[in-house]
Specification:
By secondary structure, the protein is α+β, with helices and mostly antiparallel strands. Among the domains are: about 240 residues, Up-down Bundle (Multidrug efflux transporter AcrB transmembrane fold); about 90 residues, Alpha-Beta Plaits. About 65% of the residues lie in helices and about 5% in strands. The chain has 27 helices and eleven strands. Strands 6, 7, 8, 9 and 10 form a five-stranded antiparallel sheet that branches. A four-stranded antiparallel sheet has the order 2-3-1-4, sandwiched between helices. The chain has a two-stranded parallel ribbon with strand order 5-11. α2 runs antiparallel to α11. The longest helix has about 35 residues. The chain starts with a helix and ends with a helix.
Length: about 750
Amino acid sequence: MASFLYKLGRLAFRRRWLMALLWLVIFCGAGVAANSAPMPPADTFSMPGTESQKAFDLLEEKFPAASADGASARIVVRAPEGGKISAPAHKDQVAALVAQLKSSPQVVSVSDPFTTRAVSEDGTTAYAIATYKVPATELGDKAHDALDDALAKARDGGLTAEAGGDAVKIDAAMSGTGEKIGILVSAVVLVLTFGSVIAAGMPLLTALIGVGVGISAITALGSTLGLSSTTSTLAMMLGLAVGIDYALFIVSRYRAELTEGRERADAAGRAVGTAGSAVVFAGLTVIVALAGLAIVNIPMLTKMGLAAAGTVAIAVLVALTLVPALLAFAPVKVLRRRDRARFSGKPLSPRRQRKAAKQAEKDAHRKPNLGSRWASYVLRHPVAVLLLAVVGLGAVAVPAASLELGLPGEGTMAPDTTQRKAYDLLSESFGDGFNGPLMVIVVGPDAAAAAKTVGERLAEQDGVAVVTPATPNAAGDTAILNVVPTTGPTDGATEDLVRSLRGLADGFRADTGAEVLVTGQTAMFIDFSQTLNDALLPYLALVVGLAFLLLMVVFRSILVPLKAALGFLLSVTAALGAVVAVFQWGWLADVFGVDQPSPIMSTMPIFMIGVVFGLAMDYEVFLVTRMREAYVHGARPSEAVVTGFRYGGRVVAAAAAIMISVFSGFIVEDNDFIKMIGFGLAAAVLFDAVIVRMTIVPALFALLGKSAWWLPRWLDRLLPNLDVEGEKLSHMAPSGRVATPRAERRERELVD
């Protein structure tokens, strides 16, 4: 592989105009395709194989009126303290509110609470349902403004008026602030790392090009493949982070090869052949982790994972082809200013010759840098460092034992939002379970009679507050019952009730001959969490197993991939512990802008496992590959560790700082899920890069010694030798330390 990538990098460097033009065409073509593509479809949610989804599909077929996808708003009004909502003056205000809503844009109907008996027993609170012609994603600003105006007018009259439902506007769209913050901090880190504005700009430029191509492709294929606008969220976040990191490693290795005396094209080829090999395998681990989300069998997650995997693949291609081409445009300016004169190819003045000679002598006898000094310290105190790191991460991981999963709803919104206020008003006046009713579907030849029997039996169950009369369809073969639990939608007792009611299905079939299904939003949330829980272990086994095989091929070792996987489990558990402490327990909630502590979103653990595993393997591959390279070239195990940190420690630290800044930037977004996943990924990268890869890994290498690289002979013969270390590169081109005059002239003609 190193030989092929060497040729590819050298070709891109020598044919820089052709390669740059090719990527420009791809970038512009993707942009044009995205602009001309139809609007992406609205977000849809389905869970094949669950009872909730089966019931909803049945409603689409048997009861289309009940499954209409138009948005709705539930407007809750309460009389002033000590008054009744049925008082003549307040009743007139409610009637005016209903009339105003009926005349609002895109509204189909509005229920009258006094006609539908939607009034609380104490007579203080009532609610009306407004139904719209279109789904929530297609509601216009005029419809939202009309609802806000109606609520404001009712409040001016002295009533408490709040609204919930999907028709109420939620200002939680991606503002773009996160990306801007991440890019800004990344630019500062890159300038400090490289000491060159041009070298710092290359990773940023190539990452933006890769993300632009990826997001444009997702948009262009949105209507064809059913990719909604939110599908690109994860792709943007990951594409930006890995795009910068992959280019960072190529540029850094090119600079190292150039300062060792290699001619420019050879330095670019070797950078792509060595660091590029690490990029390929690091990218593969990320792609495997993201594509593995398909095992969960939730189309929304599958699409997000595959879209992000495609963007990561584009980032790998950009790093291998466009980065060396851009290096050819500024082959010397990517170096620090003090190093440029030595490699510019121009005659030096006597003064600069003396200065360059002194610098070369200083480089030849340079002191160990911070990375090598840190590695040497860990090698001298491996047991103490290992225990301190493991105990520290273990302490941070403790809150993960209290992890509570759920899905966001109006009950978890900030207390000052109208949706949360409406939720609380309904809970106080009608009971906790009113905000999470269950829908029971009865299917049979005489559905109305069967539904009556089912309703009577359901009303006798513990945990059931109210069972509404059955509503049959026109054909008489399907009926709907609404069951209001005594507990709230996120209460564990409600989950137990759903399972209990489903357990009665066989008895209902025997007694009435009808099939009974339990669904509704609350039941769907329960099924969603259960689906994720059931898929977690198979997903973890698949991702870790495939990545273990990949890393075994890369490092030709069993223990190195094993410790990489164990280190990942430690860092991801610690990151989940930090997420629980902040978002569930409310620690430092004000610092991170958490309005309302609540259960962790059900998708968070599986997202973190997929994304963090891929990123953790990035650092493992980049850092340990350099150690492996030194080891196979004759260095002792301890020397290989120091060499790896000398050349890779600073770059890995910079890469981690960039990823942390990119992910941390998303904490400022209003979208709760984006905020949570941004915080979780930033914490995971911090724990994995700083504590696991740069602390625990060298400590384990110190304790394992040569056995870290042990591989049974029979397995060594079976595994393909991909030459990730670039051992064969010396046969592909001259060493380049002293280039021939003819080669220098030809290189100048191509590059200068």
